């Protein structure tokens, strides 16, 4: 059994069913430590997900869990209202015995979720159907939360998708040039500055009310979707740590940024990096089929801009980190963040080149 933490004692602080059996590392997450907890109840094994919360990144665990409690409770009510199974279609928090949604031993913070049986998360797309089903899952997530007042949520990572703030951070990194790298990336710096008009997109529309404030997941990758083992369908969204107020366009855009790249995010050979329009249409079709009528016309028109903006923002963040000495994103080789930035900039160029087609597909009212 894994002995990193006093798991039997930790488990005993929660309202799990049965007696503790084992606890082993689970999954491939880098931010949160995740473990598969097994208990025995009535002769049967019951499984749970136990996680150690990264309180160095999420410094206010109370606010973090406040967001997750509200969102999961609203999702459960929405699923039940339409006759679904909330134990499979959304995360279920197992409360601590003191009534809180987490437990702390004074040093670390822990939480437990019910294990969603008969479903799997995948690290990469096996075929376009997986990408479609991830779109359905995230579109459904938005639909379930359509009536939720997002102003109730805290910004656990302030200005996470405020591209105007990200741009100012970038300019400061260029000005300070703490590692003396600016001269090596003058072309990339000029590219970011030449596209600075993108920074106000969506941020300004949220501010003036033309795009509604929504619950956003902010990490809309395939590995945060549970795929049913029998049907192959996306049944639920997990990893709600970055749930915050924002725009549907952010979540949609980040999925496109990540999923419609023909190469790896850190591919150094840019001749291999292309925006896959067909995969964009696949995801768009799945997302719109699930989000339903809750999406406004203005949000729908801005879905392609969400893809451009999230890709531009991410590339800018990679370049900022490169200039600052690779202090935020984990790197495994010299120039790693620079390679990442360049792939994002190539994708933005290709997205803008076919933007009219992206917009036409998003505005198409017939079946995609």
Describe the fold and architecture.
It is a single chain. The protein is an alpha+beta fold and 368 residues long. Helices cover 43% and strands 14% of the residues. It contains 13 helices and eleven strands. The strands form three sheets. Strands 1, 2, 3, 4, 5 and 6 form a six-stranded antiparallel β-sheet that branches. Strands 7-9-10 form a three-stranded antiparallel β-sheet. A hairpin with a 7-residue loop joins strand 1 (19-25) and strand 2. Helix 4 packs antiparallel against helix 8 (248-259), helix 4 (128-144) runs parallel beside helix 9 and helix 8 packs across helix 11 (303-324). The radius of gyration is 21 Å and the shape is globular. The mean pLDDT is 94.
Averaged pLDDT: 94
Shape: globular
Percent strand: 5-15%
Taking the sheet with the most strands, its summary is: 6 strands, antiparallel
Secondary structure: helix percent: 40-55%
Which structural class should the secondary elements be placed in? alpha+beta
Distance between the termini: 50 Å
Q: How many strands?
A: 11
Order of helices and strands: HEEEHHEEEEHHHHEEEEHHHHHH
Q: Regions with pLDDT < 50 over 5+ consecutive residues?
A: none
Tell me the radius of gyration: 21 Å
| Helical run tally | 13
Which SSEs are present, and which pair or pack?
Elements: H1 7-11, E1 19-25, E2 33-41, E3 44-53, H2 61-81, H3 86-89, E4 93-94, E5 103-104, E6 109-114, E7 119-120, H4 128-144, H5 163-176, H6 186-194, H7 203-208, E8 214-216, E9 225-228, E10 234-237, E11 244-246, H8 248-259, H9 277-291, H10 297-301, H11 303-324, H12 336-353, H13 355-363
Antiparallel strand pairs: 1-2, 2-3, 3-6, 4-6, 5-6, 7-9, 8-11, 9-10
Helix pairs in contact: 4-8, 4-9, 5-11, 8-9, 8-11, 11-12
């Amino acid at each position: 059994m894994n002995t990193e933490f006093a798991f039997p004692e930790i488990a005993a602080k929660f309202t799990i069913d049965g007696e503790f059996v084992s606890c082993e590392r689970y999954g491939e997450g880098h931010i949160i430590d995740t473990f598969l907890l097994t208990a025995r109840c009535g002769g049967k094994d019951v499984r749970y997900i136990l996680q150690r919360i990264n309180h160095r990144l999420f410094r206010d665990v109370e606010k973090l869990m406040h967001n997750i409690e509200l969102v999961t409770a609203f999702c459960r009510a929405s699923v039940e209202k339409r006759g679904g199974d909330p134990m499979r279609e959304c995360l279920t928090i197992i409360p601590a015995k003191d009534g809180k949604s987490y437990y702390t031993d004074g040093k670390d913070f822990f939480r437990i979720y019910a294990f969603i049986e008969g479903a799997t998360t995948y690290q990469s797309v096996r075929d376009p159907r997986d990408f479609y089903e991830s779109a359905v899952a995230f579109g459904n997530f938005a639909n379930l939360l359509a009536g939720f007042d997002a102003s109730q949520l805290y910004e656990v990572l302030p200005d996470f998708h405020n591209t105007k703030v990200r741009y100012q951070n970038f300019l400061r990194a260029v000005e300070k040039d703490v590692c003396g790298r600016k001269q090596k990336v003058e072309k990339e710096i000029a590219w970011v500055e030449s596209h600075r008009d993108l920074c106000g997109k969506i941020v300004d529309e949220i501010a003036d009310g033309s795009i509604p404030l929504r619950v956003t997941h902010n990490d809309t990758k395939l590995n945060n979707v549970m795929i049913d083992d029998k049907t192959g369908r996306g049944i639920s969204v997990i990893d709600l740590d970055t749930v915050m107020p924002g725009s549907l366009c952010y979540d949609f855009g980040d999925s496109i940024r990540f999923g419609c790249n023909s190469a790896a995010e850190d591919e150094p050979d840019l001749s291999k990096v292309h925006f896959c329009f067909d995969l964009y249409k696949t995801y768009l079709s799945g997302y719109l089929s699930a989000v339903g009528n809750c999406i406004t016309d203005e949000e729908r028109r801005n879905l392609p801009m969400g893809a451009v903006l999230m890709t531009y923002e991410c590339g800018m963040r990679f370049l900022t980190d490169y200039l600052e000495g690779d202090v935020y994103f984990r790197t495994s080789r010299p120039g790693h963040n620079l390679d990442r930035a360049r792939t994002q900039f190539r994708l933005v160029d290709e997205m803008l080149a076919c933007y009219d087609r992206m917009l036409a597909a998003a505005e198409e009212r017939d079946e995609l």
